[in-house]
Structure formats: C-alpha cells, structure tokens
Amino acid sequence: MAFKLIANPTAGRGRVGKILPQIQNLFAQHGLEHHVALTREPGHAVELAREAANQGFETVVGVGGDGTMNEVLNGIMGTEAKMGFIPAGTGNDFARTLGIPLNLEKAARVFKTGKTTAMDIGQDCQGYFSIILGLGFPSDVMHHVNTTKNMFRGPAAIFVSILQVVNKLRPYPVHIITDDEDFSATVMGIFILNTRFTGGGLQIAPQAKYDDGLLDVVVMHEMKKTNFLMTLPKAYQGKHLSNPACQLLRTTSIKVQTAEPMRKLFDGNVFGESPVDAKLLPAALQVWIP
Fold it and tell me: What domains are defined for the chain?
C-alpha cells in the first residue's frame, strides 16, 4: 500500500518544511511506500488530496496543522480514500482527539502498527469539518492566528490571539434551529463541535465524541468581557458549562441565520460566510489511529 503525503511547508510557523525530510526517513525506515506533494497556497491541499484519491491512493496523509487536515478532508470526501495525519501545526486538535502522538517518530509508526476507524464528519453548505464549525469568537480567533505573525507557536499562539481578540469582542444577533430547538439569541460565539478538543486543547464540548452520531453545539450567549475572560480558561478543564451564559445543545443538524454576514471557521481554516446549514454524516470517513 502506498501513502500520499500532502505537506504544508508553512504550517506550524514553517516547522513542517524543516521536518519533512525526517518524516520521509521515518516512513522509509518503516518500509512504507510514500509519495510527497507540497502545497503552494491556501486551498491547494484540497486539489492535491482529491487528485491522490482519484489516482487510487488508499490513504492520503495530511502533514501540518488542523487547517491542512481540513483541506485534505475536503479533498477526499466522497471517495474511497482513508485519511491519516501527522501533526505539526498550531492547534493539533485532530491529533489530540484521535490519540495520534505529537512525537514525529511515534506518529509515523501509526501507519505501521495502527489501524483505521470510522469517524463522523460534519457537512455544511460550504464545506466539511471534523472538529469544529464556528461563528463569532472562534472564527475571529483563528482568523487572527492565521493572519498575524508573532513569536509564539502551538497552543500558546492561539491563547495569545484569544487575549487580543477579546478586546474587540462583540455580540451578534442570530437565529438557531436544531433537531429540538428553534430560538433567537444574542451570542458571542457558536461552537458546532464533532470532537472534545478545539482551540489548542480547549474542551468546549467535554462530552463530545467523534463517533457518537451527534454534534455538540455550545452557544456562548452575550456576557460582559470580564465574565467571558473568567469563563474561557475553565474550558481547558471542560468546566465552563456551569456558566448560565453557556448553552449546550446536542443535535444531528443545525441552521444558523445571522443579521449580518459572519465568517466561518472550519477546523483550522476560516472561509465562507453565514448562514450555517450543517448536518452530521455518521461514520463517513476512515481515519488512522494508534
């Protein structure tokens, strides 16, 4: 079996470009046939992944961050290809969710000694997601991470962006429809989650599972910035839901109408605008895990 590795050399503040030869050596040491393609620009990994799947590669491996992973996901959905991931980006929440080691040697070994399992995938009118579809605060934070250069890497880069985005935080009027709910609200952010982790280790939906057939939706209603700053750190332990302004919904589908266009967060990428029209596709993708 041959693996197609799609690497984003700029991911992780340029880390992927530096460690790619090491990753190739590890695959060779494990006797894993592999071919490498480098992305040149945003969206390129979607094309490369689709091309690899159509060429008959059984597994397409994203090398980079959650943004690279999301592009590979969007490229192979609807094909027979399985997805693998070697985490070397900023948040690495996909790896954290599936138990994929952050250590490069151990991550590469997954393709020698690991297995594949079925994962639910979210589908919105503008793209697929495996971790999160976000509006408001989560998309503003990731937009800041992706467009601002600073000295920080990994989850620290996200945390710094959180602190900077909070200063500009404002509420948005929305209308939300799920399987069981239909209501209007004024919110700071909406987290439509398929997994427990997002934002570099935040447990926004601490009970979410990637194979339970449900989306966990956390609506952060309007609150004062001081309250928000006191609540968000609790999400690292999944204890923020005790705040009455944090509402948890579980559903197989969700629609969100907004009074003004709001940009969307798909895993590690920010693209598209509201409205949201999303549903869960149970066991829609085979992914490699230890």
Answer: 2-113 (3.40.50.10330), 128-282 (2.60.200.40)
